[in-house]
Amino acid sequence: MSKEKKFRITFNSPVVLSIVAISFIATLLNELTGGVSNMLLFMTYRSSPLSPLTWLRMLTHIFGHSSWTHLIGNMSYLLLLGPMLEEKYSSRTLAAIVAITAVVTSLINCLLFPNVALCGASGVVFAFILLSSFTNFREGEIPLTFILVAVFFIGQQVYEGITVQDNISNMAHIVGGIVGSFLGYHLNRRERR
Fold first, then answer.
1. To the nearest whole number, what is the mean pLDDT of the chain?
2. Is residue 101 part of a domain?
3. How large is the angle between the packed helices 122-132 and 68-89, nearest 10 degrees?
């Protein structure tokens, strides 16, 4: 008698899966509260630096999404790229990358666009996209894939930021891409030593 192989579902990427779960809950809350939960907890905008919520929202705005379509678009990229990055860099490092990206995009949004509220994981998605192009990095080399990804993704965001009027924060995409590039370069440079 041969033993049947049993398959089991594994929690293979705790940081990415946690972001997806929290984002789902935040989007559901946003729908149920008519947008109040996003304004209170899951959206960053210029507000009093004396309010603890201002500082909390610098991190939590990545969980809030304006619609289910917005959520699904961002989570698809995170689920595609995140597990590979989490395996390569570790859960702790990936969580730090997510936090750094969230805070940097929030600060730049508040400084440069004081009348714009920002929500969603788009900055993190672009950080992951550019970070993933450094997976085969070697000291003294710049991967051609990184150059092409930067040109296509960041170039598209600059072009759309100038020519298209919509509710998409091209700034968050560009800043997330820059953060991912910077961290990808430095993490891989240190790893190769």
1. 87
2. yes
3. 40
By the 8 A CB rule, do 103 and 183 touch?
A: no
pTM score, two decimals? Answer: 0.85
Residues 6+ apart with CB under 8 A from 82: 13, 15, 16, 19, 94, 128
C-alpha–C-alpha distance, residues 103 and 91, integer Å: 18
Q: What is the domain range of residue 137? A: 14-192
The partner residues of 44 in beta bridges, in order of sequence, read 118
Residue 92 maps to which CATH number? 1.20.1540.10
CA-based nearest residue to 150, from 118, 173, 171, 121: 173
Task: List, for residues 131-185, the tens digit of each pLDDT value.
Answer: 888 776 666 677 787 788 778 877 777 777 666 555 556 778 788 888 988 898 8
> Would 7 be classed as within a structural domain?
no
